[in-house]
Amino acid sequence: MDMAANVGDSVVYGKYDGSELRYNDVNHQMIKDDDILFKYSGTEMKLDLINCVKDQVLIRLPPKEEAASSGIILSTPGDKEKKPDHGTVVKIGPGRQAWNGKYMSIQVEPNDKVKFRSFAGNEIKIQGIDYIVVRSYDILAKWK
Fold first, then answer.
1. Rounded to two decimals, what is the model's pTM?
2. Which residue of 10, 72, 115, 125 pairs with 141 in a disulfide if CB–CB is 3.0 to 4.6 A?
């Protein structure tokens, strides 16, 4: 089975994933290979340097407030507490690896609009823009 990351890769993982370990007076985070959301090269997380791993899908979230044609900001009471459940696919991983080593393809592609399970994934901000990373099996519908 292929590993999601290699020694020296910069990775992002979920907020509550892994266990902290202090080794040689340095803090480390021990995580499972499956907990990696994506990897990137360099020291700065930029969208063009990000590679999703396994069956992870990076989705750009819509703005929390939208302006109507009249210029009035629309926001529904309680929306700030509601977790996002739709957006636009930006990047996808190669797919989940089956027992025989072959990859199972992901059924969405960049620019697809998708609806995913409420409370799925991990929200992340990249270069000031809101995204969420979900597993492909958490996507419920897609459209162009």
1. 0.83
2. 115
